Each structure stands twice: as C-alpha cells, then as structure tokens.
C-alpha cells in the first residue's frame, strides 16, 4: 500500500515491532513478529490455553486505540488484585479469586472475569482466542511500562504473580495437565503402585488430604519446590519431591516469578527503542502515572510542615495518628522505651511525617535518657541515623506499609504491629475507650477486627475520629496521617471563612 508509511520503532532483541500510519483513516497499527518459527500463524495455535506464562512476544496487528484500552483495563485488574489481597487477608486463594471475579463483572470487565474463572482450555472459539491475545499483549505493555521505575516494577511483579496464582487455582486436573504439556513441563504423575509403596509418607507429609487414592501426585525435582519443603508439605526421596495436585500452584508460581524477573531486561530494551515515538510514549506515560504504589509517602508539602514539630507530637497523636502509631507514641511517653520493632516502625513513621533528623534525635534522646545514661543512648543514635539514610548502606528507608505492619511478629512486651490484628481483646477495647468511642462505635470496630477486616476496621476508626465518610481504605499509616491533616486543616480554615458545613 502506497498510503502506508512504515516506521521501525522498537526491537525486542530479535523481535521487531513495526508501526504503520494509514493516512486514509489515520488508524495506527502495531505488528508483532515472534522470533520462534511457529508451526502455523493461526492464533489458535499460539493461544491454546487461558493461562499463559508470557514467554513469547505477541504477534499480529492491533490499533493504538485498542492497545491503550487493553493496557488500561489490565492496570485496573492489577489494582483490584492489590485491593482484594489487602482487604481479604484471612481469605483463601480461591475465595480471593471469587471476590476478584465478582468485582470484575461488577465493573464491566467481563473479558478478564471470563479468563480468571476459566478451568483451562476446554473452549477455543474466536472469542476465546481474542481474549487470550489481548491478555498477552496487555501484559507486555505494562511490563514495558514499569521497567525504569523500581517501585512500580516491584508493584507490577507482585500483582502479576498474585493474579497468576489466583488464576491457576481455578484450573481443574485436565487444565493443569494441558498447561504442563503446552509449556513443556515434564512432571510425571506417579503410578498407583508407587503410591502404595510410599503411602505412609504421603499421609504424613499431606495431612490435609483425606483421600490419597483419588489424589494425583507428581514427581518433581526438589529444587523446584523449596517453599513446600521448607513448610514440610511434601515427601522428598532421592532428590525428588512427591507433590499433590493441590500444591502444584507453588511449582508454577515460582517458575512464573523467575520468568518474569528474567524478562524485564528485554522489556527495558523494548521501551528504550520506543523512546522517540510519541504515540507509544504517550501511552506509557499515562499508564505509569496511574500506577500508584504508595511506597513514597514522605510529607513534602510546605504548607503541611508548619503543623509538624516536636512540641505538637502529643496533639497530633491524639488527632491525626492512625491507631497503630498512637499506641506506640503513648507507650513511648509512658515507658520511655520501645522494643526494636517498635522503634523502627515509629521512627520511620515520624520520618514520613516530615520530622527532621535533628528533631528525631532530640525526641528519642529526651525519652530514652529518662531511663538510661548518655553512653547507653549512643547505641541507639546509630539506628536513628540509619533509618534516615545517614549510616550503613545509606538507603532512603521508607515508612512501613500496612501490609508489612500486619505481618509483624509481636511479643508480649511489644507495642508495634497492627492493633486491629495483634492487640488482645480487653486491651483493644480499653484503647478504643480511651479514644473516646462509645459502646456502639467500639462494637463496630471490634467486629470488623474480629472478622479479619483489619483495613475496614482502621477505616471505621478514621471515620469516627473525623466524623466523616471515607470510601478509600488506607494502605499506609502515613497516608492515613496525611489525609487526616488535610481533612482537619481544611475544616479549620473552612470554619474561619464560614465555608465549613
């Protein structure tokens, strides 16, 4: 076609992408070519299964409009994966998958809903092939989007690994067998005679399996399933592990993670080669700006700094701290000491608030020197400076996210961790009473906490403290603090000008 002007704009090593502008209708298309010679260019041969490892680069043509649309859709899906993971910590993988599917259909993202609930590859209609192809391309687009930003790359990696695990949990036995065959995993099932010979060992290693006879076990080299061995969930003999079909997800999720890590360098090269093509950089920029990892939450707004100082910490702890930090502040003021986990959790939170290193040193010294001498305190100065990136590796350590706080190991003398999860019932109720909550308010928070809805319980705590509704659950203590400060300062100045309701 004379009306087509080819523009070579990217290269996945030996995998070229061509882009064409068709002047007659101004539709841009992108052509992918894979380096591996396929037996057929029939898309059905390239997408025989609903679950993919994304090892090959996509091929075919797609308009830039569709490319942006499916990339944005995948970003929404990954954001939902993160949200459901955080909100449903007490749920099983299959329950989280069901919650994700329900949310996808609710939001009209039916294609992904259909993919995620698939049991394998029983259907290969044109619609199935189209959906699988869009899944494939959108994964590659987001992979290339995040490669130059470490925090966003980690976020993408975590959500994709979770999504893969949830999708794998929906496969039936035939779906798993086909997945292994398509991806050349030569894990052989053991025979009934072999099962009889090691039946006692299989019972001991898999106590949750009631019916050994009707459970398929696979023989897998032990180095593929280090996590299962560490958790003593499999029987190992002569370098081979005997893995029940219920635990096969561990094998493939680990493989998927390794594949994804090794693929980032290829994606990095592809993104670099697209640097001068504004049509693609526009899509990448839009996607990258909409990936909110919430890793960096340091307060940088100059107008906020006027409210944060040493002499205001007691007041801020009462009005704007999340409960986890309020508990730590009170314990430090009372005992003039915190255990190691509490010191790190609270010190990084204060750093995230915007408290300077010099003020932090003054704050901790004023407390600790009430129970120790100057020599003993010098040991702690190193760790305070370390948290601020002034000692040791000099990394810019970030305040802990809620998920990390939830995963804390908390002992009887500790005050860190998440009070909605870790605090004893009576102590928890007393703490809420000290916050000024009435019986009905305490009951609402404690019920959510008891049901394992820790993020929802924290959100309810915020709503009661601030007398407002909040429709976005907090995933970071410093984001809670920032939102509280914005709410209170807006209300304060609104009151003075007569604008507050």
Automatic annotation (TrEMBL):
<comment type="similarity">
    <text>Belongs to the eukaryotic-type primase large subunit family.</text>
</comment>
<dbReference type="GO" id="GO:0046872">
    <property type="term" value="F:metal ion binding"/>
</dbReference>
<keyword id="KW-0408">Iron</keyword>
<keyword id="KW-0238">DNA-binding</keyword>
<feature type="domain" description="DNA primase large subunit C-terminal">
    <location>
        <begin position="314"/>
        <end position="481"/>
    </location>
</feature>
<dbReference type="InterPro" id="IPR016558">
    <property type="entry name" value="DNA_primase_lsu_euk"/>
</dbReference>
<dbReference type="GO" id="GO:0003677">
    <property type="term" value="F:DNA binding"/>
</dbReference>
<protein>
    <recommendedName>
        <fullName>DNA primase large subunit</fullName>
    </recommendedName>
</protein>
<dbReference type="InterPro" id="IPR007238">
    <property type="entry name" value="DNA_primase_lsu_euk/arc"/>
</dbReference>
<keyword id="KW-0004">4Fe-4S</keyword>
<dbReference type="Pfam" id="PF04104">
    <property type="entry name" value="DNA_primase_lrg"/>
</dbReference>
<dbReference type="GO" id="GO:0005658">
    <property type="term" value="C:alpha DNA polymerase:primase complex"/>
</dbReference>
<keyword id="KW-0639">Primosome</keyword>
<keyword id="KW-0235">DNA replication</keyword>
<keyword id="KW-0479">Metal-binding</keyword>
<dbReference type="GO" id="GO:0051539">
    <property type="term" value="F:4 iron, 4 sulfur cluster binding"/>
</dbReference>
<dbReference type="Pfam" id="PF26466">
    <property type="entry name" value="DNA_primase_lrg_N"/>
</dbReference>
<dbReference type="GO" id="GO:0006270">
    <property type="term" value="P:DNA replication initiation"/>
</dbReference>
<dbReference type="GO" id="GO:0006269">
    <property type="term" value="P:DNA replication, synthesis of primer"/>
</dbReference>
<dbReference type="InterPro" id="IPR058560">
    <property type="entry name" value="DNA_primase_C"/>
</dbReference>
<keyword id="KW-0411">Iron-sulfur</keyword>
């Amino acid at each position: 076609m004379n009306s087509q002007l080819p523009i070579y704009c990217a290269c996945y090593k030996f995998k070229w992408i061509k882009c064409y502008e068709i002047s007659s209708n101004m539709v841009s298309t992108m052509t992918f070519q894979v380096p591996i010679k396929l037996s057929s260019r029939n898309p059905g041969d390239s997408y025989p299964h609903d679950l993919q490892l994304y090892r090959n680069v996509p091929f075919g043509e797609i308009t830039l409009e569709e490319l942006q649309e499916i990339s944005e859709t995948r970003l929404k899906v990954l954001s939902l994966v993160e949200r459901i993971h955080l909100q449903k910590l007490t749920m099983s993988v299959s329950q989280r998958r069901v919650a994700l599917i329900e949310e996808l259909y609710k939001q009209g993202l039916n294609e992904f809903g259909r993919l995620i609930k698939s049991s394998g590859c029983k259907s290969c209609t044109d619609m199935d092939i189209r959906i699988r192809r869009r899944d494939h391309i959108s994964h590659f687009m987001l992979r290339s989007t995040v490669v130059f930003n470490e925090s966003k790359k980690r976020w993408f990696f975590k959500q994709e690994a979770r999504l893969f695990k949830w999708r794998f949990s929906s496969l039936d036995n035939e779906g798993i067998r086909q997945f292994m065959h398509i991806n050349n995993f030569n894990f052989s099932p053991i025979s009934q005679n072999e099962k009889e010979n090691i039946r006692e060992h299989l019972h001991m290693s898999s106590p949750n399996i009631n019916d050994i006879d009707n459970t398929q076990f696979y023989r897998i080299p032990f180095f593929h399933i280090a996590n299962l061995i560490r958790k003593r969930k499999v029987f190992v003999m002569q370098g081979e592990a005997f893995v029940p079909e219920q635990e096969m997800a561990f094998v493939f999720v680990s493989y998927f993670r390794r594949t994804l890590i090794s693929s980032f360098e290829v994606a990095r090269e592809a993104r670099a080669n697209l640097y001068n093509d504004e049509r693609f950089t526009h899509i990448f920029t839009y996607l990258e700006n909409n990936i909110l990892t919430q890793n960096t939450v340091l307060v940088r707004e100059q107008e906020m700094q006027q409210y944060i100082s040493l002499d205001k910490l007691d007041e801020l702890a009462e009005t704007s701290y999340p409960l986890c930090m309020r508990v730590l502040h009170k314990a430090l003021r009372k005992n003039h000491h915190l255990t190691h986990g509490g010191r790190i959790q609270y010190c990084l939170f204060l750093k995230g608030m915007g408290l300077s290193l010099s003020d932090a040193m003054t704050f901790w010294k004023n407390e600790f020197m009430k129970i120790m001498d100057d020599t003993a305190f010098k040991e702690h100065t190193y760790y305070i400076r370390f948290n601020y990136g002034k000692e040791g590796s000099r990394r810019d350590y970030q305040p802990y996210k809620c998920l990390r706080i939830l995963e804390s190991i908390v002992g009887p003398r500790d005050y860190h961790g998440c009070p909605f999860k870790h605090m004893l019932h009576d102590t928890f109720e007393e703490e809420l009473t000290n916050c000024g909550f009435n019986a009905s308010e305490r009951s609402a928070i404690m019920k959510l906490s008891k049901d394992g809805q820790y993020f929802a319980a924290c959100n309810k705590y915020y709503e009661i403290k601030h007398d407002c509704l909040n429709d976005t659950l907090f995933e970071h203590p410093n984001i809670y603090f920032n939102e509280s400060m914005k709410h209170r300062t807006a209300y304060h100045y609104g009151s003075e000008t007569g604008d507050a309701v």
